[in-house]
């Protein structure tokens, strides 16, 4: 439960499951017949980026001429900014822009000082539940979330909204790609976009806002024509550090970065999984095999070595694995 004033609330976040922490940046826009105040997201984000210390989250409001009622949530778990990922903060941070395609046509000028959070009570006494969070589950390739891929769940408007997303992304050239796309029967669209020119594949806040606004505009247009429902909800984010890498396609792209590799050395069903932090050494395409080498990170060093680099024997060591024996591969980040 949130505490503090309605005007501004600070939240002290404990360390989250991801040791790097994460940012949740969102603007939840929902239908309202009243004028509204919306969030100065860019100002909050820029102030966070200017600091090298972990910041408490804050919720504040500033005037806007929009006909939406909006609320803003900015969370920063235990984390520090790093120059190694300064363009997008840590890639493990998640940026979201939450929108509703259903807008208000009312010009009612009733003043509203703040928008209630999803767990707050509206004036009619009903408890609101404005956003359906994605189910927490172990990522799997093709799951439409951290595993990438397309998941439409047989909703009749799924293909149409997917085609719109692809068309909007085409305006960004080859720099922005669709990493994951998922629709749900309750009318939610989850989009993760990948920035190819960024080391971590992490789009900026401006990238996400730009895509989101253009995509929402197109959804509004087709909703008004009856081609899709007019009350869909949209979440746009970056893949995050939890993204699963495809073997071998993504390995080439991130070959200059260490990776967490979960693998087996035997194809037997009950073979024990092993874990390592490796660099990609090479790929034998014809044999469909990856060759890994040890990354010079603390997990691979002798605890008694007092920080000394890998030995010659360790540097020369190689692990040869068929594609299928690489169970999961993710980016290794330890700032």
From TrEMBL:
Asked if the keyword Aminoacyl-tRNA synthetase belongs to this entry, the reply reads no
Which stretches make up the Ribosome maturation factor RimP N-terminal domain? 180-242
Name the GO terms of the biological process aspect.
ribosomal small subunit biogenesis
Q: Which UniProt keywords apply?
A: Cytoplasm, Ribosome biogenesis
Q: Where is the composition biased (Acidic residues)?
A: 107-137
HAMAP family associated with the record: RimP
Report the protein name in the record.
Uncharacterized protein LOC115752918
Q: Which organism is it from?
A: Rhodamnia argentea
Q: What is the lineage of its organism?
A: Eukaryota, Viridiplantae, Streptophyta, Embryophyta, Tracheophyta
